[in-house]
Amino acid sequence: MNKIVKRCLLAGCAVAAFAAVVAAPTVAQQKTIKIGFVSTFSGPVAAIGNDMRNSFELALDHHGRKIGGLPVEVIYEDDQIKPEVGVQKTQKLIESDKVDFLVGYIWSNVMLASLKPIVDSKTFTVITNAGASQLSGELCSPYVFSTSWNNDQTPQAIGLYMNQKNVKKVFLIGPNYAAGKDMLEGVAATFKGEIIGRELTAWPNQLDFSAELSKARAAKPDAIFAFYPGGAGIQFITQYAQSGLKGQIPLYTAFTIDSLSLPRLKDLAIGIPGAQHWVRDLPNDANKKYVADFRAKHKNDPSFYGSQTYDAVPLLDSAVKAVKGDLSNKDGMRRAAEKADFKSVRGNFKFGPNHMPIQNFYLQDTVKEGEEYRLKTVATITENDQDKHWQKCKMPN
Amino acid sequence: MKSWITPRNAFVAALLAILVLLPVYAALTGNTFMMTLFTRIVILAIAAVSLNLIMGFGGMVSFGHAAYLGIGGYVVGILAKEGINAGLVQWPLALLLSGLFALAVGALSLRTRGVYFIMITLAFAQVVYYIANGLDRYGGDDGLTIQRRSEFGGLVNLSNRTAFYYLCLAFLLATVYLVWRIVNSRFGLVIQGARSNERRMRAIGFPTFRYKLVCFVIAGVLCGLSGVLLANHTNFISPALMHWTRSGDLIVMAVLGGMGTVFGPVIGAVALLVLEETLPHVIGLASYLVTGKEVAAAKEYWQLILGPMLLLIVLYARGGIDGLMAGTRRG
Amino acid sequence: MLYLIEQCLNGIQLGMLLFLLAAGLTLIFGIMDLVNLAHGSLYMLGAYFAATFITLTDSFLAGLGLGLVATLVAGMFMEVIAIRPLYGRDHLDHVLGTFGLLIFFNELVRLIWGPEGRTISLPPEMLTAVQVVPGIYYPLYRLIIILATLSVAALLYILVMRTRVGMLIRAGASNREMVGALGVNIKLLYTLVFGLGAALAGFAGMMQAPISFVQIGMGENILILAFVVIIIGGIGSIRGAFVAAVIVGLIDTMGRAFLPDAVRLFLSYSAGSSLGPALSSMLIYALMAGVLIFRPEGLFPAVGK
Asked: Contact at 8 Å (CB) between B129 and B67?
């Protein structure tokens, strides 16, 4: 037995145990706004988390690194796409870091898991992507706002578009988690033809879609609808092309092609339409400034994930300004936020009674500009669309 | 009779004192996260102690012990979702099901030896893992939020942090005591005898299979209790509760603390989870001392140290932390 | 019918991948009696090496070749530093020690390559489907995986059954002391075998990478499946690993293809989506438990053990 190794191990444990016991809680500095930011910074969807962070940082720069006149400190946490990790990180931010605001959440399942500590602690929260139907309905909460959408709204728009294109039979594929189920329901809600197959795949680990694509081919639909965010979308579209389906059965998408996946998909993305509530070329001043500055800094277009996260900063700014920096006045901040009195990068924007945006949905397509592949708005599919769950929301006054 | 005041006993006493006094410290400093962390540690320590009963004393290396965490947790979660919050219904049912599952797994697995036993216990745990994945009504992959913790009328309020913590601690101490009694009973001696030489135990007339099976079931029930507490603690259950790496974590706790001693796994659980929280800070501090400024990125890589540490413990410190302190075990 | 054939091909392709991983695992297990949980890390390393070299050389094939060599070297290095002291210990020590290595490699990869992961793009000419039998189009790249793995399997068979090194490997598996007593350098033999296993795992990782994603922890779930394969096949038996890999691959794919619809006949649509894949995964583990209960040494027990 090596005595030295033994001693070192013992000493190491002793130091660690001691450190844990004496680690004093961080004393919250007065008059600094602490924001906890929960997103994904690892794995096949890390690009989404980074894009959200970049947009959030850019928005803070645009506001002079201040919200309502107070300096800001942001703590970024990685949820690893796992609900159980997300809820732990949320608890840590609330209890240990004592944050004033929570921002972020990409995944519906992570957000739903984290909702109880958020609601129990009355932490003022802006969800910048996850759009689980329950949040718009029975789980709506006075201090929780969303700058994104309800999951089923975007696929509802694409369902309408497929009606326009005279699609009669469609095959639906999506990941088997809260959002995937919502998305397929969304298409089913507006699509008038027949749904001849629905497949849900294991999320987020299954990236090999061979069995599902074979099944889709065998069903002989007029079109396939798919929802695969992040790296999973790149894989889905690549395998769709690889299997030779691309010339045979057209593909319609929601949240599958974005400016993050385009540099990898290139030509594969062309001719695959998608619906979106924000596209980088929307003609309003706030958006022009956002996209131009983002491109100057990061050399590519921001994604819609980024645009929603960007909006969180002016929203919080308007709320904190309204209470003159008194962060304990949560009801005051809530009333101010409900007015949506800020310039959103998507232009037209207001909140429904369930704190979900009411907004337009557009048809987007991929175009090649020089060497760069970019997204472009083609048409408006729905105007001032409100989610269909708001009546289930019993928002306390 | 050797002296009771050994470095090791002093350490155990100090650890117990810390665990008992922690809520006071948390209340004084207002650090509620400390309570959350230590409640978790205490709960997982129960699971590690139960695993150690079969692994350390019985030589049955179960690589599927997290399944009982899941069963305990899911019984609480499913009943809560169906509107049954009474702890007096939830808890006994959870323990019963954990025990029945352990009975079935044990009866089939205990016929195998060595690595086959490791793998067959893993297989059964994976089956339960996928059942939970398939429970669409209870969230499937996404897991399930438990809106209300188990209710015990006026008896105890689990939503009170301090009360819940002391309840968990009481269960831990009871578990340790129970395992200690088992190990030092005639039954426990048969189990340990079967570990060192099963054929001899059978030859002198002990039906070792039955002894081991009973031991396996007791461990399953205790771990099920840990699952019940864990679900109440996190207010959330998901299949991840019983992912195979979680079973690996439990083995790590038992071995890190010291297998073959009753209290070792408690030390292991505290050490592993405290390391998880503090190693990042230690690394940050080290990077500060080396480079003169704190390298934030360095903090993220704490597991870079944990991994080789495990290997070193396996190679040089078989008795775990407990063995290091006792100084008597082989190295 | 055509659809069934297509799904069979999908199942076989998955089986091939599992075989690559299981072959190394079973060799190491059979010869050195070592349970290696870090085998999945080599699968991950292979994919990361290939991704890096493909970017550096701008050539798919050159990247794969260099990646393979790098994984081989990394595997031998790992054996000398960390695995060697574990020989002769009991299985619990292996599980724990290599679990530590698994954690270490995950973090090491994060340190070197960052948390985001990598994608490997296929050359455009591989992005097509070919007609295998009339009416069935199958992705070219997946066919390449099947064929490449079959050639590897054949090479492995020749190596183990027809060469001098293979003879030593087989001899080492049945009686390690005797081989050592005859003057064979057992240490070197072990290092070579471990390196070979590493290269096979790395090859699996880089072949799968273009239809999946190069990320931290990518080897963990598939490693457990590979363990199932070698247990079903019989520890130490390459032939058993091959058969079991195909069985597991087929069950998994067929389950995913047909069970959801079967469940929907009795339960709701969304229950089918969740329960179907879960059932097919369960089937695999139930098969393994069944094999262990009725044939504790697996389907093809290695001779001489």
From this structure: yes
